[in-house]
Amino acid sequence: MASDKAQYLVALIAEFAEHYGLTTTQAAKYLSQYKALELYDRQYGYLHTQSFASNVRDLSAYCRRMGGTL
Question: Residue 14 burial by CB count (10 A; 0-12/13-18/19+): exposed, middle or buried?
Answer without folding.
Answer: middle
